[in-house]
Amino acid sequence: MKKMIRLTGQSEIEVGLTGAPGRQTIMLPIAKKSVYNQEAESLRLWGVDPELGKHFVEGLADSFEILYFDYEGHVFQHPNPENLTPEYIVNDFLHIADEMNVKTFSYYGYSWLALVGLQLAIRTNRLESLVLGGFPPYEGPYQEMMIVTDKTHMQAVGTQRDGSKQPEEDGNSKEIDWENMTVTIDPRVTQQFVTMYQSLADFDDRNIQHMLNFPKLAFAGEKDTIVYGEKFGNVTVDMVGLLKKNSGFLAGLGWDVEILMGDDMDHTKAMQPAAVLPLIKPWFIRHLGLEK
Question: Record keywords: Hydrolase included (predicted)?
Fold first, then answer.
């Protein structure tokens, strides 16, 4: 079943509900729409599955009911620069669940949508379990991401003003040259993420752990560390380092912590279905009581 749902900002998003009837529901806001032809080939060069959303949904739908949508794609297409706060996003997610008649659910999010999962968890009692990928749930890099996001937005504004264009990409290279990269994103899109991180300036994830009384998993790729140069604020966003540093403490708080191993297992590779599904599917089966 698919349905168009009108969100808080009056934009509409396509939402799907599929899978095993009567089973527990998993919310997947990371379900990007499939792309094909040349666009798909370009994504493959960067190690990105062009059918990422489809493969996640199909990979889990034989065991669970899946509530899926592409929230990142939605906010890129319908930017809301002044209002994309955690409260706003959580209201969108709970409204989607209500519209699809889903009472309780588990959640999987990656990167900033993992961050949102933590915000969802402390604002509702409807979660049955939580999986966060590519963003640590304890001592998260909020300040570093605020700096990178602010610098990105400033460059997007400058690019729009100057009319600059992104240089041609070398199709054989999988390394991002952050210092020579031209930011060509719509400034309204980048501004909404500045709004989100600004609203989290006083958030302390160390003080909310007692509220997370359900099964929970955090993971990151072995190489999920990005060192940004001067152009992006001279900061290091070390997702895997923070997760490793606090793994013992997190275990004591009831978190399962996993590192996806591999020399190429960076932030992008560690979000692909081929890497993630072998970890999260058996975890959900085990913790949602489906294991025989």
Answer: yes
Question: In terms of residue numbers, what domain contains 118?
Answer: 2-140+203-227+236-287
pLDDT at 168 > cutoff 70: no
Q: How many CB atoms lie within 10 A of CB 173?
A: 10
Is there a domain that residue 272 lies in?
yes
C-alpha 218/C-alpha 138 separation (Å) is 10
Helix %, strand %, coil % for the chain, to 5?
40, 20, 40
**CB within 8 Å of 228: residues ≥ 6 apart:** 148, 178, 234, 235, 236, 237
Structure tokens at 239: 């997702």
Please check whether residue 148 lies inside any domain of the structure: no
Q: Would you place residue 265 in the very low, low, confident or very high pLDDT band (cuts 50, 70, 90)?
A: very high
**pLDDT for 259 beyond 60:** yes
In this predicted model, what pLDDT tens digit does every residue of 6-52 receive, in sequence order?
A: 998 889 999 999 998 889 999 999 999 987 888 888 888 878 889 99
What is the distance, to the nearest Å, from the Cα of residue 134 to the centroid of all Cα atoms in its chain?
A: 8
CB 229 within 8 A of CB 178: yes
In a domain, 192, yes or no: no
The residue with greater pLDDT, 291 or 125, is 125
Q: Are 243 and 259 in contact (CB under 8 A)?
A: yes
User: What CATH number is associated with residue 240?
Assistant: 3.40.50.1820
| C-alpha Rg value of the chain to the nearest Å | 19
Strands 65-68 and 12-19: antiparallel
123 pLDDT more than 90: yes
Which H or E run contains 16?
Answer: strand 12-19
Q: What percent of the chain has pLDDT over 90?
A: 80
Residue at 82 is within a domain: yes
| Number of compact structural domains in the chain | 1
- 3-class secondary-structure state, position 211: helix
